[in-house]
Amino acid sequence: MRLPLACWLTCLSLLWSVASVAQPTAKQVQYLSGTDNTHTATWDFYCTGGRKSGFWTKIQVPSCWEQQGFGSYNYGRDYKTYGKNFRFADEKGQYKHSFTVPAAWQGKRVYIVFEGSMTDTEVKVNGQPAGAIHQGAFYRFKYDITDKLRFDQPNTLEVTVSKMSADASVNNAERLADYWIFGGIFRPVYLEAYPEQFISHTAIDAKADGSFAMNVFLKNAKQAGQVQAEILDAQGKTVGTAQANVAATDSLVKLQTKVTKPLQWTAETPNLYRVKVSLKAGGNTLYQTSDKFGFRTIQIRRGDGIYVNGTKVKMKGINRHSWWPETGRTLNDSIHLMDVKLIKEMNMNAVRMSHYPPDARFLELCDSLGLYVLDELAGWQKAYSTPAGEKLVKEMVIKDVNHPSIIFWSNGNEGGTNKELDDDFGKYDLSNRPVIHAHHRPGNAYNGIDCNHYENYYSTQKILADSLIYMPTEFLHSQDDGGAAVGLHDMWELHWAAKRSGGGFLWALIDEGIVRTDQNNIIDVNGVNAPDGVLGPHREKEGSFYALREIFSPIKIDLPALPKSFKGKVPVENRYHFTNLNQCFFQWELVNYRKPGDTFAGYITQKKARIGSPSVAPLATGNLDLKLPKDWKNYDAIVLSAYDPYKNLVYKWIWKTGSPEKALDGIVAFDGKQPVAVTDSDSLLVLKAADITVGFNKKTGNITDVRGNNGDKLSFGNGPVLVAGNSTFAGLTHRTEKDGEVVEVRYTGDLKSVRWKMYGTGWVSLEYEYALNGDFPFTGISFTYPENYVLSAKWLGKGPYRVWKNRLQGVTTNVWENAYNNTQTGAAPWIYPEFKGYFADITWLEMNTVEGKFLVASKEPDMFVRLLDFYGLSGVKPFPALPVGNFSFLDRIPPLGTKLALNIDANTKNLGPNSELNHVAGSTKRTLYFFFGLPKTTGKEQPYTVPTKNDLF
After folding, report:
1. SUPFAM superfamilies annotated for this entry (predicted)?
2. What is the CATH number of domain 312-551?
């Protein structure tokens, strides 16, 4: 929503009036722009190049001007794409805006503040320069414009923003980068009015033991007085005070006190306090301000680990760009909140600001909801010069210093580190947080932490066995469907068990897709450069999102299936750092699954109960006693949900109570009394029962000429063929048995036996055996079905997302249903779950097609189904290669690699044991059941119940 400027000024004037009555000594704020991408203000604008250039018009502020239809788009790596003669778009934007300040502001100091402007920004007020041109896009900067203002009269603001900086080092650090780059005033602009004597900013150091120190920076102190601090808890109760005297002309005062037994801040316990600071003289309060903060102590113990409040912690982190498809880097509070919640929903505890400091609101949410933050000075493989960087470090730290969520400062990315700036952070940070170097090459460790990027499993083992703490600030690059959770289970277990691991930060949270206002509003991810997220541009959830949620779950239950001796006790490991499991709560449900042909998917809850939480200390193990009723085996499955102390769902586990054969009771039927009709010709053997027809090609042995019980042809066939190994058709025979007709197909080679049987009910069984020895990406058999005929699929098995051999997590057993889509992960239209892929532990699968429905089931566990043609990673050749056919029933599936494995086929195996090919030795047997149509099932369909938000996985 965009409000007219007059409305904005009226509202803001009203707010100022209220503030001036309630808090005459507080800072007063008047916005000149809007506050975010949904509340903007209209300014005059002139663009010097590209689209809509060469004339004065209007623009919304804040914004990236490309998203308003101006100028030209650039991706930071365009210089690589287009070669030596490439020139970045270097248009300038000229802004004009008229504003009025209240007459009551006379006698105050008035500053104009820019939260972020890309890149060089020249500011004039009433024709006079506000100060030196600011260079650097992602930093708050301000000018004292008191002597340039006309009070209670119109004032003219003129701003010239140059897309490319006049400082080459600023361009190198910020714009020659692997992300979209923009121009414009992309964060808010506002005025601040202070009394003549005031506090410009503070820097807090609040330790876990309650020690509190605070630097208070004064402006224009003209008389002796005092600075007083009052520390308030979350209920507003005063828990500590401090005071110091101020001499005339003092510019810095340090306050100290100690709070008894404070509630400590961690990502698990984000306890916040507030400090009210007052500047007083002669018994009067001249100025008052406040800051939120948390009590916590950060330590790097060399050769050991990262400690928060005396407890070793590991970062379960991810990299986050400040991003929204329609508005680029201009965001709003709801986007910031959504991102923090999504990161925490994945059971992560940390986020890296890649590759620049974020909006202040994002950090406030990390403080209040609990995330460890790595705040980063911009510098993507190239660094700021020392003169440019010194100013920007100061601006960054002064803005962000009091956020307890920030536990590291990062001095640039992947070689974009100017080591001369390392000691600058501590000049403005009283708590002296650790500084790290986020490098992509070994040998650049700093402060005892190696942050080397994109090591594989085996090189990570070597680094963790060395003397430094290892905390990769980027790893498992998640372009397309690769990386992120692919290979993470092995990698995370390695980090979790290693003494010197500090955890790490996955690349990355979001696919950076921008709505191209020059290309009919398509969403552009710049080829393979920007689809790097586990979320789509609008935060669409990929399969890795849910796998990360399971892998990073602080309540770890490693129970793939119920053992035969199961008596209701579940082993549980507490991977929280600060939380006992008795602070969490658990709930079980006994459920029955819906059947093929039912209108709805899912399960029906028959019984449920909340159970007592065991006392399991952080990092300890114990048992969770479900206290199930005696008849629990009479239900299809047990559902166990775990909730954290804040009542957020941590994870949900589902276990079937019996075998696939039990699950097929009432679905697969063999007791038909009608005989099977046989038609035998030179080239074709045809069987028919219950209006279903199947044929067998006597020259190939393949199933063919299938007709469903609706009388229509079903284009299913061209199999079975082995997907790995060799086989040659050697003949076909058939015989009649009392309950059906048997067709036996002989092969030479690795396919040892194939036995079809059609029953009078119309059901068809397929028993087969193959034998292999060696390493294979996949094993099993395959058929074909035309993709363009497919409408949807419903199945009982793991879902709703597809899996890979090295990403089996994040899927649970239920009756799932997906509509057909042709989604390629990381590309438009971002419809998830992907319809096509490998799907795990299928008991039955109902295909819905334009030719009718058909059903496939397996009486053995652990069957994978491959649906149609797809790939995990794009490239010269999509990877990995697929089995023959397009509709496969598999016992083993391939692993997936990452973008940064240059030879993907060779390097995927280096992601860990589960990323190796399948090691196969001996024979595999399986029985499949087919019904070409929709079978009748026993039992009445259960009514549909509206799921709660925690039922929706």
Report:
1. (Trans)glycosidases, beta-Galactosidase/glucuronidase domain, Galactose mutarotase-like, Galactose-binding domain-like
2. 3.20.20.80
